Amino acid sequence: MTAPARARRPLDRHAVERRVLGVLRVLVIAGAVAAAAGPLLYGVVLSVRPFADVVAEPLALPAPGEVDAGAYVEALRDESAGGFGLARFMRNSLAVALGTTALAVACSVLGAYAAVRLRFFGRDSVNGFFLAVYLFPGIVLAVPLFVVFSRIGLTSSLTGLVLIYLAQTIPVSLYMLRNYFHAVPVGVEEAAEVDGCNRMQVIWRVVLPMAMPGIAATALYVFMIAWNEFLFALLFLVDDRRRWTVSLGIAQLTDFNVPAPVLMAGSIAITVPVVAGFLLAQRLLISGLTAGAEKG
Amino acid sequence: MVRTRRRREELHGRLLVSPTLLVVGLVVLAPFAASVVLAFQDVRLIDIRFMSPADLGITFDNFAEVLSSAGFWEAARTTVVYASLTTVGSVLAGLVLALALRRPFPGRGAVRGLMLVPYVLPVVAATTIWTTLLNPQYGAVNEVGRRFLGWEAPINFLTTRGIDIAGLPVPVALSVVIAFEVWKSFPLAFLFITARLQAAPRDIEEAAIVDGASPTQCFRHVLLPQLTGVLALLGLLRFIWSFQNFNDVYLLTGGAGGTEVVAVRVYEELITRADIGAASALGLLMTLALSVLLLAYVRMTRKEGAR
C-alpha cells in the first residue's frame, strides 16, 4: 500500500543520490574484482592451453578435457632434462627467503621489544632512522652495493642477497612487531621478572608466545618481499644461471623466446606460495600493516 | 636500586637494537656514503679494482655530464609525470573502493581478499602476465580490440611511443606503465583507507544524515576531513616509491617507448655503460629531489599540528 505512494513521490536529491550511488557501487565492485583477479585468471587459463591453440584462438577457453599441465612440467624440469629449471630457481628463492625471514624476525623482535619497553638514549632517533631507511631509493643503494660486492666477491652469492633483503625488510617488520608488542600487558612481564627471569628469558618465554600471531604475520610479510625481489637478484646473479632466484629466472626466460604457456605456468607457480600464504594469514597481516592508519 | 635499573635498561636497549643498526649501517648507510663519494669521482667499474683512497679527488664532471646528457630532462619529466599520475590514480582507486566496500554484504570478505591479489603477486609474475595480455600476436587485449572494437592493426603497447586518437596524441607505453602501477599499488591505499574508515565514529555521520545531509554531502563534510591525514601520507609514500621505481618499468618496457624514468637511467649508467660516477651522481640527484619533498611534508604536517 505504501510502496506505490513512495514510488510516485518526486525524487529529491537524497533519493537520487542514493540510487545512483547504489548502482555505481555495484559497478565499481564488479569492475574491481575483474581488474584485480582477471589478469591472474588469464595467466592460469593460458598456462593450461597448448601454445598453438593460444595463437590460433587467443580468447578461447580450454574445454575440460583439453586442460594440459605440460607447461608446468616443462617450466619446472631441470635444463638437463629439457625443461627451464624453475624448480631449482624455487629452491634458491626458498633458501634466500627463509634465511632472510629468520634473521629479520630475530633482529626485529629484539629491536621492537627495545623500542616498546625500554627507555634508552636515542630511542626516538633510532625509530626515525629506520623509517628513513624504508623510504630510501633502492636503485641508489644498488650502485655502491654493486661496486662493493663485486670488489669483495659477494656477487653470485646468495648470502649477499640475504644481507640486502634483511636491511630492506627490517624497518617494516620492526614497525609491525611494535604494534603487536604494545598489546602485551606490562604486568605479565614484570611478574616474570619478579620470578627471576632475565631480559632474554622474558622475551623468549613471555613476549614471544603472546605475540606469536604477530610474529607469524611479520615473518610471512618478510618472506613475501624476499621471494618477490627482482632488482638485486638481477644485479648480482644474472651471470650465474645456477643461482637464479624465481623472479630473475622468469624475467630472464621472457628474453629466451619461451612459449607463452610455459611463461604463464612459471609465473603462476611462483605466485601460488605467496598468494596462498597471504590469503591464509590475511587478517593478521592487514591488522599489522595498517595499525598506524587509525592515528591518521 | 632505581638507578641501576635505569642503567640496565639503557644498556639492554642499546644491545637489543644493535644487530639491526649493524645491518642497516652496513647495507644502507655505508653504501649511501660511498655513493656520495663516488658521485664526485671520475671512475668506471674497471678502475675500481686498482683504486686506493689516495686517488680520491673532487670533480663535478659527473653532475655536469648527467645534467647535460641527451634525454636527462625528458627522463626527469617522465619520472614526475609517472609518479604523479600513479599516485593520484592509486590513491583515488583505493578511496573509491574502500567506500564501495564499506557497508557489509554477503561475500565482502572474499572480495576484499581478491582486491589484494595485485599487491601480493610477485612483480615479475605480474609483468609477465601483462606483457602476454598486451602481446600484439596472441594477447587478449589486441584480440578484443580487433574483433570487437574495430582496430585495423594490433597495437604494440609496450614499444609504441604515441598514437593519435581523434587528433589527440596519446602516449601509449607511458599510459600502460602508469596503469600497471596503479593496478599494482591501489590495494595498499585501499587497505589503509579501509582501516581508517573503520576507526571513524559512526554517530557523527548518523547525526548528519538525521540533519538532512545527502550521502555526497556527508562524505564531503564528515568523512573526507577525517581521511585527509591518511590520504596525505599515502600520497607521499606512493609518490616516493613510484619516483624511484625501477622494477616495473624495466620489466614492462625496458625504458622503451618514452617510458625511460630516472631509475632506469641509473641502471643503464651502471650496467650498460659501467660509469659508476655518473650512476652515483644521478642517484644522488634522485635522493635530493625526494628529501626536498619529504622535508616539505614534515613542515606541512608540523604546521597543521600546531594549529
Protein described:
- Chain A: Pfam families: BPD_transp_1.
- The complex is a heterodimer of chains A (296) and B (307).
- Chain A is built from 15 helices and no strands.
- Chain A is an all-alpha fold and 296 residues long.
- Chain A starts with a helix and ends in a 6-residue tail after the last helix.
- The model of chain A has no long low-confidence stretch (mean pLDDT 83).
- With 307 residues, chain B is mainly alpha-helical.
- Chain B has one domain: Orthogonal Bundle (MetI-like fold).
- Helix content of chain B is 73%, strand content 3%.
- Chain B is globular and about 75 Å long.
- Chains A and B meet through helix 2, helix 5, helix 6, helix 7 and helix 8 of A and helix 1, helix 4, helix 5, helix 6 and helix 7 of B.
Give a nutshell description of this structure.
Chain A: Residues 90-281 form the ABC transmembrane type-1 domain. The complex is a heterodimer of chains A (296) and B (307). By secondary structure, chain A is mostly helical.
Characteristic terms for this protein:
heterodimer; A: 296 residues; mainly alpha; MetI-like fold; B: 307 residues; two-stranded antiparallel sheet; 14 helices; 3% strand; transmembrane (chain A); membrane (chain A); transport (chain A); Multiple sugar transport system permease protein (chain A)
Supply Rg of chain A. Answer: 25 Å
CATH class of the largest domain in chain A: Mainly Alpha
Principal-axes shape call of chain B: globular
What is the percentage of strand-forming residues of chain B?
under 5%
Unreliable residue stretches of chain A: none
Oligomer: heterodimer
Q: How many distinct folded domains of chain B?
A: 1
CATH topology of the largest domain in chain A: MetI-like fold
How many structural domains are formed by the residues of chain A?
2
CA distance, first residue to last residue of chain A: 48 Å
Number of beta-strand segments of chain A:
0
- From the 3D coordinates, which CATH architecture of chain B would you assign? Orthogonal Bundle
Fraction of helical residues of chain B: over 70%
